[in-house]
């Protein structure tokens, strides 16, 4: 039986997708990012609240990272301090490797219009990843259902319970929300406007 799988980071976008799509499985990836523990904890709580199956993949790529998410100095290649080279390609590939054996046919990703300042956050990137995975054995496709909306638009449209989004973690610098990084400020701004 084909399954849908959600890449659940524990942030607002993927939590809202979990609420709207109720996938058969949610997967969080610890690839060595400094905020992995908080992302895993937030994702587990979100999955539990929605009665969704949740798994964690651990692959240590910390020494390959750059920027604040890796606890490293940022590079001049990315346009943001949290830029990590090829991160979305890595994470999508790792989840695909895990779930293709289950017979999953759709991998849902919580990318939104706000993410399109990075090449691997653009709609074209996810279309290319979909083509690449579909080309290979397993017939697994990649879908970014909210790619044409900002986080604020998506959350306002869906209006998930505040109790669900209260579990989210968006900080890219720490397991404890720093309140200063772009992601923390965005989360606070969206929650304040929506609720």
UniProtKB/TrEMBL annotation:
User: Carries keyword Nucleotidyltransferase?
Assistant: no
Pathway(s) served: Purine metabolism; 7-cyano-7-deazaguanine biosynthesis
The GO terms describing molecular function are: ATP binding; ligase activity; metal ion binding
Instruction: Please tell me which top-level EC class this enzyme sits in.
Output: ligase
The EC number(s) this enzyme carries: 6.3.4.20
Question: What are the entry keywords?
Answer: ATP-binding, Ligase, Metal-binding, Nucleotide-binding, Plasmid, Zinc
Keyword Metal-binding attached: yes
Q: Provide the function of this protein.
A: Catalyzes the ATP-dependent conversion of 7-carboxy-7-deazaguanine (CDG) to 7-cyano-7-deazaguanine (preQ(0)).
Family per UniProt? Answer: Belongs to the QueC family.
Q: Write down what this protein is called.
A: 7-cyano-7-deazaguanine synthase
Organism expressing this protein natively: Halorubrum lacusprofundi (strain ATCC 49239 / DSM 5036 / JCM 8891 / ACAM 34)
């Amino acid at each position: 039986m084909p399954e849908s799988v959600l890449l659940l980071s524990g942030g607002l976008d993927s939590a809202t997708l979990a609420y709207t799509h109720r996938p058969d499985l949610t997967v969080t990836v610890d690839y060595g990012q400094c905020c992995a523990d908080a992302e895993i904890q937030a994702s587990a709580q979100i999955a539990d609240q929605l009665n969704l199956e949740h798994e964690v993949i651990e692959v240590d790529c910390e020494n390959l990272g750059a920027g604040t998410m890796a606890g490293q100095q940022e590079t001049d290649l990315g346009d943001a301090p949290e830029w990590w080279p090829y991160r979305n390609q890595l994470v999508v590939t790792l989840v695909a490797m895990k779930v293709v054996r289950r017979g999953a046919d759709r991998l849902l990703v919580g990318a939104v219009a706000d993410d399109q300042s990075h090449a691997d956050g653009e709609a074209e990137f996810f279309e290319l990843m979909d083509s690449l995975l579909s080309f290979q054995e397993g017939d697994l496709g990649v879908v970014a259902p909210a790619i044409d909306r900002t986080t604020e638009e998506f959350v306002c449209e869906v209006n998930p319970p505040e109790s669900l989004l209260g579990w989210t973690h968006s900080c890219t610098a720490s397991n404890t929300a720093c309140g200063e990084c772009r992601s923390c400020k965005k989360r606070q701004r969206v929650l304040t406007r929506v609720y």
